[in-house]
């Protein structure tokens, strides 16, 4: 009778980073309503967090088919056109995320005022470009997008802190030091970033080591973790972590090459 409550509970677990539990609760609803756009999208997001973008995109295909049918055959639409437009926008947005930012500049700008997460994901895209190119224009674009945002959730505090840090300010500690977030994964990432900026690498390793198991295949995490290890003179551990990185762009980065060479010499 109250099956829809499972979707809300699943969303709460998703927000708390309990993706496997979220999936279990959500499945109760999907067994009765397998075509639910909201439930399918949440399932895809869970798969993205638990596995990877390809697994998430695979879960989203059924929803993509429904939206395409409404575009090709308008008589399939039994709801308001605005709801179908939002479904189409949601798919476009999530595919950019699932594909690691592919097509971000073509899709996300038009969705900034439609889907709240689009603004944050566009900021993340610009920050990733800065990581590889150090282009000041990308920093400025990220700052313009987020400067007027009043953070309401931990992710927004973290992202605004990172952008301000890139612009020469340090506000990331706001989340990491809070009593409600200090023991969460985002909170520890935040504190590690703050200590990294302060070059307190022993503290960086304490925080990153505590969440390492969650990011074993994350190139950005391994890049930062390896640099911190090298800074503390743990060259063997640093070399092993550097060699775990798969991204070819990182392989061509001077910081990567110079640090790896130093590790090999030692």
TrEMBL record:
Keywords from UniProt, A to Z, are: Cell projection, Repeat, TPR repeat
User: Where is it mainly found?
Assistant: other
Q: Which GO terms describe its molecular function?
A: intraciliary transport particle B binding
**Which cell locations does it reside in?**
Cell projection, Cilium
- Please tell me whether the keyword Repeat is annotated for this protein: yes
- Coiled-coil residue windows: none
One GO process term, biological-process aspect: intraciliary anterograde transport
* UniProt entry tagged with the keyword Methyltransferase: no
Q: Which InterPro entries does the record associate with it?
A: TPR-like_helical_dom_sf, TTC26
Q: GO cellular-component terms in the record?
A: ciliary basal body; ciliary base; intraciliary transport particle B
Q: Which family does it belong to?
A: Belongs to the IFT56 family.
Q: What is this protein called?
A: Tetratricopeptide repeat protein 26
């Amino acid at each position: 009778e109250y099956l829809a409550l499972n979707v809300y509970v699943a969303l709460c677990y998703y927000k708390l980073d309990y993706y496997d539990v979220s999936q279990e609760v959500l499945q109760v609803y999907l067994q009765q309503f397998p075509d639910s756009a909201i439930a399918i999208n949440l399932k895809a997001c869970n798969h993205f967090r638990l596995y990877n973008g390809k697994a998430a995109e695979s879960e989203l295909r059924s929803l993509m088919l429904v939206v395409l049918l409404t575009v090709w055959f308008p008589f399939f639409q039994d709801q308001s056109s605005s709801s179908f437009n939002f479904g189409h926008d949601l798919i476009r947005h999530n595919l950019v995320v699932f594909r690691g930012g592919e097509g971000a500049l073509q899709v996300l700008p038009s969705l900034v005022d439609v889907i709240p997460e689009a603004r944050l994901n566009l900021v993340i895209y610009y920050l990733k470009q800065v990581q590889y190119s150090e282009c000041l224009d990308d920093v400025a674009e990220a700052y313009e997008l987020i400067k007027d945002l009043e953070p309401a959730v931990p992710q927004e505090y973290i992202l605004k802190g990172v952008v301000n840090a890139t612009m020469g300010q340090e506000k990331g500690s706001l989340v990491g030091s809070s009593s409600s977030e200090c023991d969460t994964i985002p909170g520890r990432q935040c504190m590690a970033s703050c200590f990294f900026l302060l070059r307190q690498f022993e503290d960086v390793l304490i925080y990153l080591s505590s969440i390492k198991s969650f990011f074993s295949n994350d190139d950005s995490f391994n890049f930062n973790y390896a640099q911190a290890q090298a800074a503390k003179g743990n060259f063997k551990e640093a070399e092993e972590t550097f060699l775990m990185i798969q991204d070819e762009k990182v392989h061509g980065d001077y910081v990567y090459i110079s640090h790896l060479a130093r590790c090999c010499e030692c």
